[in-house]
Amino acid sequence: EEQGAIILSHEDVVDSLAECQTSLLGKVISQKAPNLVGLRNTMGKVWGNPKNFRVLAVGDGIFQFIFPSELDATRVLRGKPWFFNNHFLNLERWQPNKTLKDYCFDFTPMWIQAWGLPLQFLSKDVGVKLGMRFGDVDDVMIPQSGSREGRSLRIRTVLNVTQPLKRGCMVRLTEDKPIWIEFRYEKLPAFCRYCGKVGHEFLNCIKRFLDLEDEVVLSAQY
């Protein structure tokens, strides 16, 4: 009985396929499971209350966001990053024949500021090199005016939410000694100042609990 394959045809999935084609799949990057009703009500308002908008829990902390049209789904996808209860809500486009375990919600676009560069190094080429520390670089902006702290580069790149936030990096300016460049994250949601990861805060940090047990706890690193 287990050996014979059951043949499924397009006619078997006409109704469900129509819903999937206007869907996004998403996951809230948080230790605490989100409330389905709260997620639907909050994100519905944020996204302009699309008609017949629905949210379904589909397993493993993943939600299906069903929009009235593919245009609505595309508009929301292009507006990333999104947040729910001060945590990242990472979204991916539905893909045919892809199972839930094949989706990856580890990455989100993010604007990052690079502080500490001498003025002559405030260029798009420098921004691309710094942004490549994170991943692909979508854009680099050079603000025309600064603040009391000076001027910085704004870099739109991809953040891996499973890794600790990068505090900065050393750069070498021609033959001079290396200098420290500080990274600051725009619209950063809840994160842990002990381990540097998003999705939880200091008091709920598993790494801190393990370090306490091993008596190697460190001071907050962020």
Automatic annotation (TrEMBL):
Ranges of residues in domain DUF4283: 18-99
Superkingdom of this protein's organism: Eukaryota
Domain Zinc knuckle CX2CX4HX4C: 160-205
Pfam families: DUF4283, zf-CCHC_4
Protein name from the UniProt record: CCHC-type domain-containing protein
Lineage: Eukaryota, Viridiplantae, Streptophyta, Embryophyta, Tracheophyta
